[in-house]
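pasting Cytochrome P450 4V2 for the record, 460 residues
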Amino acid sequence: MSPGGFFKQMFQYSEEFRNRSLLKMWIGPLPHLLLYHSDTVEVILSSSKLIDKSSLYTFVHPWLGTGLLTSTGDKWRTRRKMITPTFHFTILTDFLEVMNEQANILVEKFKKHVDKEPFDCFLDITLCALDIICETAMGKNIGAQNNKDSEYVRAVYKMTDLIHQRQKTPWLWPDFLYALFQEGKQSDRTLKILHSFTDKVIVEKANEMKNYQGSKCNFVDSCKSSESKKRRAFLDMLLNATDEEGNKLSYLDIREEVDTFMFEGHDTTAAGLNWSIYLLASYPEVQKKVHRELDEVFGDSDRPATMGDLKELRYLECVIKETLRLFPSVPFFARTLNQDCFIRGFKIPKGTNTVIFPYALHRDPNVFPDSEEFRPERFFLENSSGRNPYSYVPFSAGPRNCIGQRFALMEEKAVLAILLRHFWLETNQKREELVLAGDLILRPSNGIWIQLKRRRTHMA
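structre below
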């Protein structure tokens, strides 16, 4: 079955049995409990004990190891404590310059399409997100937007495709069988490229930091020396991070987290950006409201956005949140129960695989009336206060929520603000024409097709 067919079937089941207490379904040879009501989802996500990821995540272990995404127990708790400070507001502020620069490169590429035929924007947006995460995670500008054929860029996409393929092919699940197939051999070759690139960057950054030791300025902090005015990256913080006993992360530990940032931080945000663009192009009245808000904040200026500006873009934030309701970047995530629990009065035994299905959860008509309609106003404070927090989980929720959600929302806001200051978006692509491929990331297998008109001639 195609990923689109599998995803469609899962959603059909969730709609057909929406009023039932629980739904069990088989994925390959394994039974899974499908959860898409806020009260059932809350039991799993709110727990500080039910944090074990499903066996389906083992397919990313060769690339990511057991970093923040895939680890569990004490390792996950220790790593989460160490890494949380790297997403502090003041550190995120440093990344806005990168986001603005890369979004402006995207604008230049998009200008070629103004007043032309519809084009598929999905890859262009994704390459922009990849450039942003590379520079913010590793401090490395790989120039993916202008060189999509670089070895590392190709390896990132190849590895992601191989993981998707393996997830939906049960006979490729056992490692010893996978190694015999062409896909397994391709995976080994691709992993060497990915890991050698990350290893090289880590060693280079560590050596740079050693060179600064003994000088009056700290590499991570600001300094008058022009040499030290390099942008901070997550990697800088990881190299300095210590646990409660003062132990630093090993290079292998750091590689796990850098690779995790790369994997988690570009596809998800790229999908969110693409879906936002599609919905804004489909709903001109909403797009006009965003343009009015942008004009109020920026006027006729073409200056880069500041953190203060982004904070003022409240309606745009509602647009992004409503987009993530309709098209959550991660359409489902899975946990394996490490102890018995009770859901709606039923005892769910230890070892059960549970699948949380945000795509269906976000369409609960009791929480979101006319749930297929795109209405950013749902997320106005007066309309969302009192709503069960587990009825809307695009970044998961509870103790194991997405550590990078503020980074992701900031990036989407920054990129969309720049694009919408330059362009008017249109599309003839109907919602029913979208073929949703729900693997690790929710994406349209037939692309996002838009047309562009220039908003202001003075910004040409």
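Confidence is low (pLDDT under 50) at residues 222-228.
DSSP finds 17 helices and eleven strands in the chain.
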